[in-house]
From TrEMBL:
Residues 1-18 form the signal peptide. Keywords: Signal. This is DUF4168 domain-containing protein.
Length: 142
C-alpha cells in the first residue's frame, strides 16, 4: 500500500509542476502582449503628435535634418554640425559624417548608377566602427 501511495504522490507532483509551468508561461505571454500593446500605443500617440515624422523619417531632436526623395521614396538626412560636436570621439564622428557626405554627393550626381559601391560601403562601416569604439554613447541610428 505504501508503494502505491508513493507512486500516486510522484505522479501528482509531476502534474502539479506541469500545471504551474503552463500558468507561468501564460503569465509571461500576457506580460509580453501587454508590453507590445503599450509600445504600439506610445508609437501611435507619438505619430499623432508629430505627423511630419511619419512622412520624413524619424528625426532626432536637436540634429539638423532634411528630407529628400530618392526613386519616389522619402529619405531623411541628418548631419551633425562640426561646431556642435565636442568631447571624446569628435574626430571619428566627423570622419564618419564626411564619408556619409561623400556617398550623398555620389547619390545626387547620378541616380541611375549605384551610389554605394563595395569600397565606399566598407569605408562607411570602418568609420562607423571607429566612431563607435571612440564614443559608444553617441546615437548612431539617427
Amino acid at each position: 500500500m505504501k508503494y502505491l501511495f508513493t507512486l500516486f504522490l510522484l505522479l501528482a507532483g509531476q502534474v502539479v509542476q506541469a500545471q504551474a509551468s503552463l500558468l507561468i508561461g501564460g503569465i509571461r505571454a500576457a506580460t509580453a502582449v501587454g508590453t507590445l500593446a503599450a509600445r504600439n500605443s506610445k508609437a501611435k500617440a507619438k505619430m499623432k503628435a508629430n505627423p511630419s515624422a511619419a512622412t520624413a523619417g524619424n528625426f532626432t531632436a536637436g540634429v539638423p535634418a532634411s528630407a529628400f526623395t530618392y526613386r519616389g521614396r522619402p529619405v531623411s538626412r541628418q548631419r551633425t554640425a562640426a561646431g556642435t560636436l565636442q568631447g571624446k570621439g569628435a574626430e571619428e564622428i566627423l570622419a564618419l559624417e564626411a564619408t556619409l557626405e561623400q556617398s550623398y554627393q555620389a547619390l545626387l550626381a547620378d541616380s541611375v548608377q549605384p551610389f554605394l559601391p563595395a569600397p565606399q560601403r566598407e569605408a562607411i562601416a570602418r568609420a562607423a566602427r571607429q566612431a563607435a569604439a571612440a564614443r559608444p554613447s553617441w546615437n548612431y541610428s539617427s
